[in-house]
Protein: Peptidase
Organism: Methylobacterium tarhaniae
Amino acid sequence: MDRGIQAVRPALVHLCLFSLLLNLLSFATVIYTMQVFDRVLSTRSINTLISLTVLLLLACAATALLSACRDSALRRMGIALDREVAGDLYDLVYAETLETRRLDTMHAFRDLETVRQFTASQAIAPLFDLPWIPIYVVVAFSLHVWLGLAMMAAIVVVLVLALLNEFLNRANLDRASQHAAQSQRLLDTASREAEVLHVMAMVPGFRVQWLAAHGQALGWQLAAAHLSKAIATVLKFWQQFTSFGLVALSAYLAIQGQVSGGVMFAVMFIGGACIGVVQSASSQWPVFLRARQSYGRLQALFRAAESVGPRMALPRPEGRVDVEGLAVTAPGTPHFILSQVSFSLPAGTVTAVVGPSGAGKSTLVRCLIGIWAPSLGAVRLDGSELQHWEADALGQHLGYLPQSVELLSGTIAQNIARFGPVDDAAVLAAAQLAGVHEVIQQLPRGYDTDVGEGGSALSGGQRQRIGLARAIYGDPALVVLDEPNSNLDAVGEAALAQALEVLKGRGTTCVLITHKANVLTLADYILVLKDGTVSRFGTRDEVLTPQPTPSEPKADRPAPMLRPSLAQTS
Ligand SMILES: Nc1ncnc2c1ncn2[C@@H]1O[C@H](COP(=O)(O)OP(=O)(O)OP(=O)(O)O)[C@@H](O)[C@H]1O
């Protein structure tokens, strides 16, 4: 973020300079009017009038030029800031989404948008004019003390009205944005689940919900707009009244012989300019506060990331996995999904994770590949905790096939190559190993077929098999498959079994979740999860051997890879 500020610093300096010159030039009209009234009319000098008018014309031209330059500096400032921080912010938001398991981390981009719009908009300009208000007041005081006091009173009234607007409207605007966000969420869901809504006649009910949220948002927006407009009308009246009130006061003072006649015109300009600055600055104040809040949040995000610091590069792992006293909580709750999970998997083995629905199998595999960080305990790959790895470096050594396979918009080759540089030979090898090469060749454009949004142009089975090819692309050390055969036919299942054999032969560690008994024949180890803890763990034969009933004597033989904490749970 500091880099972003550094990038816009030259533009900020230009902005200050332009504001200084523009405000100085605004006095040209005042001086011109006073000179014409007090000097030209009394001396009747046409030459002086022409000279003064030419000077004023030059001042007006300079004002127009400087305004255009200031607008251009503003636009460049917003873009420069965005360019400097957008890439880093993308990485940060992505990491935060994984860490906090929240999907609403996109607020960081809304914050960047708010800051960019603020810096690039006209909203920032009046803030640079604010330091000139005391100068206007001093000029008014120098003309006459009563004029100075009247000017100050006018400023106070404008500030009170602006604060009133902000105070009374804050609740309205908050409610409007809450309902607008809800209405947007409903729209997103409706477009994502259009088929389900249509088939099961859920559209009318959903429509009612959306209309209610949309209507509430509009209602609160309207209330806020009415109030703002009412206060703006009062402000407009007050601005006009101030200009003419100051003229009336200076005319009275001129009649009393306390000021010259030209002061009437001068004070009209100064009053108008001063109230104009106060009014536009105060109307932009909430925008400024929002931008400042957004900037603060962004800065906190960047600072937190800096405190993590760079991580050491670790060598390519062999694939040994150690899970030690692992416990994981559900997002935003103190409820543990997994607790006291401990086991070790030697490199180059296949482990099947089984257990009833909701036992925590998917949660466990998410921890195994570092998507979710442990709340307690540790998950180690070749002895190093996953959190000690640089995320991108670790990703090269991991393969993951999630339960619901989401392919990304792009070609099949790009998806298999994980959107990195497409290595044709490696893509082909991964596809052949996953047994999907023939399937891909049947598609209209082969490996160059566009998979559509989320892979929608492919069947569930095709997506799953391409997802498997993506998981094993680049020869990772650890491959984690969450129900890899849930959408597969007999041919697909045979291909999966063959792929697992080959991976095992290569020394790749494989962990797969399954509900199908036939897959267990491929496994070296079986881990049974129940209610978030390890119910059983051991070699396939050990786990598949029926446990002795309580009346039978207990086998006095711990599983070879069992850890002490696991021995208590199994
Ligand atoms: N993001 C989440 N927020 C809150 N609770 C969650 C979240 N993800 C999972 N859980 C809870 O954790 C528990 C285990 O879920 P998990 O998906 O790991 O089970 P599973 O064994 O893989 O089930 P299945 O076989 O049905 O896929 C469930 O009770 C689930 O409600």
